[in-house]
Amino acid sequence: MSVRSAHRLFIVYLLAMAFFLTWPGIVPFNRVRPFLLGLPFNVVWVAAWVAAGFVVLITLDRAITRAEPVEHGR
Fold first, then answer.
1. Percent of the chain having pLDDT more than 90?
2. Which residues touch 28 (CB under 8 Å, ≥6 apart)?
């Protein structure tokens, strides 16, 4: 993945996260039941966005790291 496409993925993810974790995007998911792994659904919803953010940031970091030139020696 190129750095440019990784940056686009990051921006799209941030915009989607901002929408789906604030009003009105969270309204359909803001309920207690069903319980998933013993947690209310709205807590699992937020935790899933945080976990997905970790994956997006790792992808961005790897794309940037691969694009940097490698220095040999000092």
1. 73
2. none
